[in-house]
Amino acid sequence: xxxxxxxxxxxxxxxxxxxxxxxxxxxxxxxxxxxxxxxxxxxxxxxxxxxxxxxxxxxxxxxxxxxxxxxxxxxxxxxxxxxxxxxxxxxxxxxxxxxxxxxxxxxxxxxxxxxxxxxxxxxxxxxxxxxxxxxxxxxxxxxxxxxxxxxxxxxxxxxxxxxxxxxxxxxxxxxxxxxxxxxxxxxxxxxxxxxxxxxxxxxxxxxxxxxxxxxxxxxxxxxxxxxxxxxxxxxxxxxxxxxxxxxxxxxxxxxxxxxxxxxxxxxxxxxxxxxxxxxxxxxxxxxxxxxxxxxxxxxxxxxxxxxxxxxxxxxxxxxxxxxxxxxxxxxxxxxxxxxxxxxxxx
Length: 346
Known about the structure:
With about 350 residues, the protein is an alpha/beta fold. It has helices spanning about 5-20, 55-65, 85-95, 110-115, 145-160, 175-190, 210-225, 235-245, 260, 275-290, 320-335; strands at about 25, 35-40, 70-75, 100-105, 120-125, 135-140, 165-170, 195-200, 230, 250-255, 270-275, 300, 310. It has 11 helices and 13 strands. The strands form 2 sheets. The chain has a 7-stranded mixed beta sheet with strand order 1-3-2-4-5-6-12, sandwiched between helices. It is globular, with a radius of gyration of 20 Å.
């Protein structure tokens, strides 16, 4: 883990320049704030260009900025490599920010270290749960298995070949939950279905950020008979979606409604498995502003609180039979009341 010692002095000198060049910002819309809260977001190496995970976290920050009742200003720093994570957080700390939001499981250890060293700054991290976090740190986690399960029902019903695929990011808990839910949802809809899947091996700066690899894996699955692919791995998964476009196959997006966020894949996108990251990030920022910070150090988003779901079918709406839509709606209700399980036991 990179040490944060010695970073502060350099960061103080560089903060204004780096934040001004590398970060986007949106001014608060309120003119009657007794205090303005400064929030900084640090992406993982997938950056905002992933069109899903990091981009949606930043959208949540922007949603807070645009809520005049919160009096928030914000900036984002995109990380180029894992050794940037603590340095980027420190830039915000040296600028006296009130809160830092970090995006992704891979930032877990670094976020904990910086949060412990800066107890007066609030921290929220997407996709990480700690056993005993410090009081200023909250994890934002999701039931990705539930979102994947719903998308799997669609894939299981829409496949014509009886084989579906999934191209995933690193084998970490959030991604693993997506896969388990997707494959079990497909089997719930179609007991005879065959599922193919592959995780991306650890690749440093290319982790979740290797569309060429993702495209190769999806193409191989089409060669094995798959006619639908789930791309669940940031830019890596986006490569699988593009492979589906080129092969005239169907695809399922991830994290957000990728029909909206990633129009290059619209031709193949029948739906996307969503976890409502923007909602979770705005919730955490609101808790900071309103002084309702969770004492548990954890906020969980699932089918019970509209924290997960699937996207509209968009141009495929007329091709998705009514009984499939009804099955998805029934499954969502049962996931929320606990009468249906996804099969994930982690």
